[in-house]
Amino acid sequence: MPYATLGFDVRDRVATVTVNRPDKLNALNDATIADLDAAIGEVIARDDVGGAIVTGAGAKAFVAGADIAELATQGPLDGRARARAGQAAFSRIERSPKPVIAAVNGFALGGGCELAMACHIRIASATAQFGLPEVTLGIAPGYGGTQRLPRLVGKGRALQLMLTGERIDAAEAHRIGLVNKVTAPEELMATAEAMMRQILARGPVAVAACIDAATRGLDTTLEDGMRIEADHFGLLASTADMREGMQAFLEKRAPRFTGR
């Protein structure tokens, strides 16, 4: 379906979701949040889509933050409602059983950094910059940043970034574990697509199980996380994909997974 603030293109089972407000450096307004929520729902629902790459239009920004024109007029109740809407949309990305890769092509600040963190994998252009500068505006992150950043880079480093509002470049983001890989700007989308196609060549039920176990396991005890893993391990043994994967290995050929 068409989206007012996003590009949505599908090619050979890969959906490219492009935040398309370049005149605003792709800042997230309420309409964009709603479109992102709907777009990831479409990715999950469509049988012809195996995964998604999220990026920003133009050369300057992935998403430069939230739309300050909207935030400037909010009160306590609508501020909380706005945060909950953003959190719900980004959690839907995080819980997607299909892989989502952020191709970070420029500024990923505030809500843009939060969007990238909600994706399963982050690949950054060497020119990208990351940060949660909300404190410089007298506010705090509202779309999951205070929770996801410590889980990715540790509490101390996360608090340093949030309390100072400082920006870091792609190399530093990679060093601290915020980014999985850094590429030359002209290679960004090809690198993201190559990784996505590597994932799509694997068993889709197994990929979904890995995403679910890792995501839910972080929110529980180690013992409960182990139970989640064991449940998936047992359920996967009932799939045609497991039988195909094992047989292909024994026959020394590429597997032909069907997602069943």
Task: Write up this protein.
By secondary structure, the chain is an alpha/beta fold. The protein is built from 11 helices and 10 strands. The protein has helices spanning 30-45, 68-71, 76-94, 111-118, 145-153, 155-164, 170-175, 188-200, 204-217, 222-236, 240-250, and strands at 6-11, 14-19, 51-56, 61-63, 100-104, 107-109, 121-125, 129-131, 167-169, 181-183. A 6-stranded mixed β-sheet has the order 1-2-3-5-7-10, sandwiched between helices. Helix 1 (30-45) links the parallel strand 2 (14-19) and strand 3 (51-56). Helix 5 (145-153) packs across helix 6 (155-164) and helix 9 packs antiparallel against helix 10 (222-236). The two termini are 27 Å apart.
Mean pLDDT: 95
User: Rounded to an integer, what's the Rg over CA atoms?
Assistant: 19 Å
Strand content: 15-25%
Spatial strand sequence of the major β-sheet: 1-2-3-5-7-10
User: What's the assembly state of these chains?
Assistant: single chain
Give a quick precis of the structure:
With 260 residues, the protein is of the alpha/beta class.
Keywords:
260 residues; alpha/beta; 6-stranded mixed beta sheet; 11 helices; globular
Task: Please give the structural blueprint.
Layout: E1 6-11, E2 14-19, H1 30-45, E3 51-56, E4 61-63, H2 68-71, H3 76-94, E5 100-104, E6 107-109, H4 111-118, E7 121-125, E8 129-131, H5 145-153, H6 155-164, E9 167-169, H7 170-175, E10 181-183, H8 188-200, H9 204-217, H10 222-236, H11 240-250
